[in-house]
């Protein structure tokens, strides 16, 4: 907001309020390229971040972003007014990512054996060291190359469905309701899937950081 | 509150701020009483922050200039020949399959077709037989394997058209009708 004091007049100027997503979608539908350009520029970084987290390749991630926005443009007429634009965009993005991963034959849905013990393992693990590295000052911690690589490696080892939900939650802060819409799963599944995703990553980190898993408590 | 998966799932939702008030209070009481639960909470929050920081660092390296132009360019124009060629090269089995299909079609269209024996140019001028003459077929085979069947009177009274009898001297192609109809002129 800019304020200019004149001899007798006080001029107050407000920055223009950017149009919301629905307005831009409506305008883009009617052929307004500038409106669609604004949508792309508004979400390109977020979409790229999710795509990169999913496909783990910068060029492919950029291809995913382009493809997702092209699909969005071609499907503008099918977008429902009662939906949220970015949940729709993320759903398309995740689907494009999955297509890319399947095409290159790198599906890793079974790369990490999963069972309910993961939760127990996490509970029993000595996570003090992990939390001291991740929890106390994460920004500082991720500057440590080794830890960053280990986190990325852990993310790569979990199945796509867990990676997708973790990325959408942590990078974009989607609510459980929004995650359910994007991933087309019940809200209750969101809660358990997100927990399992975290549990797996934390367990993998715990192992890669060399923190031994203690024996279960006798009282348990 | 014990550290079982159900508790940890509640803790995960608590970290996300997705718990109803009653469950939130339960988790907070447990957190106050259990050091390991507090460590897990810290670890979950720390993981989220680390993932965000890593992602932001990666995104910061990328130049998004021109991305919107490239997207709009793709949606607003018809694919050029070059683009279609590139697309075809991504799926090489398409042009190869197309070529094979064209070659197969050309083969079937252009291949020499074996024509059935034609009667073009062969016209029966007249066939007569004196009653009660017996008609007998005479089969001639050409070098190409075609067969020409004559119906002749047997025995040939004039001797002009006596055909060489078959080796067994019996018709093998078709039985001789008892009262054969004479072919009319123009028919074979």
Polypeptide structure, described:
Chain A has 220 residues and is mainly alpha-helical. Helix content of chain A is 65%, strand content 4%. Chain A has a two-stranded antiparallel sheet. In chain A, strand 1 and strand 2 (10-13) form a beta hairpin. The longest helix of chain A has 23 residues, at 33-55. In chain A, 38% of the residues are buried. Residues 106-128 and 213-220 of chain A have low confidence and may be disordered. Chain B is mainly alpha-helical and 188 residues long. In chain B, helix 2 crosses helix 3. Chains A and B meet through helix 2, helix 3, helix 5, helix 6 and helix 7 of A and helix 1, helix 3 and helix 4 of B.
What is the topological layout?
The complex is a heterodimer of chains A (220) and B (188).
Chain A: E1 2-5, E2 10-13, H1 21-29, H2 33-55, H3 58-74, H4 85-103, H5 117-124, H6 128-134, H7 138-142, H8 145-157, H9 160-172, H10 176-183, H11 187-208
Helix pairs in contact in A: 1-2, 2-3, 2-4, 2-9, 3-4, 4-10, 5-11, 8-11, 9-11, 10-11
Chain B: H1 5-15, H2 21-33, H3 35-60, H4 67-76, H5 81-90, H6 93-110, E1 134-141, E2 147-154
Antiparallel strand pairs in B: 1-2
Helix pairs in contact in B: 1-3, 2-3
Give a summary of the structure in a few sentences:
Chain A contains eleven helices and two strands; from the N terminus they run E-E-H-H-H-H-H-H-H-H-H-H-H.
Gap between N and C termini of chain B: 105 Å
**Quick one: how many beta strands of chain A?**
2
Fraction of residues of chain A in helices? Answer: 55-70%
Q: Greatest interface and its residue counts?
A: A-B, 59 and 42 residues
Binned strand content of chain A: under 5%
Principal-axis shape of chain A:
globular
What is the topology, as strand order, of the major beta sheet of chain B?
1-2
Percent helix among the residues of chain B?
Answer: 40-55%
Q: How many β strands of chain B by DSSP?
A: 2
- Taken in chain order, the helices and strands of chain A follow as EEHHHHHHHHHHH
% residues in beta strands of chain B: 5-15%
Largest sheet properties of chain B: 2 strands, antiparallel
